[in-house]
Amino acid sequence: MTTLTETSVAGNDDRRDNNQNYPTTTAHKLMVALDVDGTLVDHDGHMSVPVREAARDVVAAGHHVTIATGRSLNATLPIIEHIGIENGYAVCSNGGVTLRLDSSLSDGYEIVHKATFDPGPALRALRKRLPSAKYALEDEDGNFLSTERFQDASFGVEAIGVDFQTMLDATAVRVVVFSAENTPEEFNAAIRHIGLAGVTYSVGWTAWLDIAAAGVTKASALEHLRGRLEVEAHRTVAVGDGRNDIEMLGWAARGVAMGQAPEEVIAAANEVTHSVFDDGAAHVLRSLLL
Q1: pTM for the whole thing?
Q2: I want to staple 7 with a disulfide (CB 3.0 to 4.6 A). Which of 70, 247, 260, 283 is the partner?
């Protein structure tokens, strides 16, 4: 395990000096997968100037910078715009939705892949074990259905309040379960007791559970894109902080965990950078320009 320390987070003058070292050929391009919350932005949703400028410089250098996030499409688009990605790809909903970004398109993007699943079995089992939890579901049309008017910034749209049966009957891209009354450990215990089958899931920082189709993770979507982009496996980089980043960090040749990441996330990485509050992502991104 390598710990990154003081890689430069250079200002504008230093960036101009480094421009001559930017890659210009396909053979030199990296595929750089970046988590959003806890990596590019802090837990208040703020992206610092050093992180934004470093990300923009890596994009300008011609690398394949790919956002890989648990956020849904509409919550991801502002981040893509903020760091200046006009053409390329993004992975949303923990691998459930893949976008092709193209500035010539009317919306600036198109959906090239969407992995859906039947949420009914998982929802029924979870509600028996966690009856007081709140449930939300991203459907195949990008709408969010929720119980108890459950809303989160990662949805990107206002959730539509529905009864539980309506959620059971929907086709899902992503299911979210949240409970202020439970701890992550209790969530893990409930999942072990239920034995969730036919889906992929990850428990967040709090009692927050993300569920996707079986076999669908950020890593699975990124590996598909790597083949499409014809990037060699040893030229992949990923940066993340959450349990939903574990597979992605293992997928990358250079997997970097944020300094505030849980132990199991750090264990999956090759390196550890500074925390999100100390611009850890900027240190990693600047190192790609050396």
Answers
A1: 0.89
A2: 283
Lowest mean pLDDT among 119-123, 127-131, 216-220, 227-231: 127-131
**Total residue length of the chain:** 290
Residue 174's nearest CA partner among 155, 188, 148 is 155
Other Cβ atoms within 10 Å of 220 Cβ, number:
19
CA pair distance 283, 274, nearest whole angstrom: 8
Long-range contacts of 165-168 (CB under 8 A, 24+ apart): 167/119, 167/123, 167/135, 167/137, 168/119, 168/120, 168/123, 168/124
Q: Strand order in 236-240's β-sheet? A: 2-3, 271-272, 254-257, 236-240, 31-34, 64-68, 88-92, 97-101, 109-114
3-state secondary structure of 28: helix
Q: What's the DSSP call for residue 253?
A: S
Is 164 strand, coil or helix?
A: helix
- CA–CA distance, 240 with 21 (Å, rounded to integer): 26
Whether residue 48 contacts residue 15, with contact meaning beta carbons closer than 8 Å, is answered with no
Phi, psi of 237 (to 5 degrees): -135, 140
Query: pLDDT tens digit string along 2-48?
Result: 665 444 343 333 433 444 455 446 668 999 999 999 999 998 999 99
CB count in 10 Å sphere of residue 142: 18
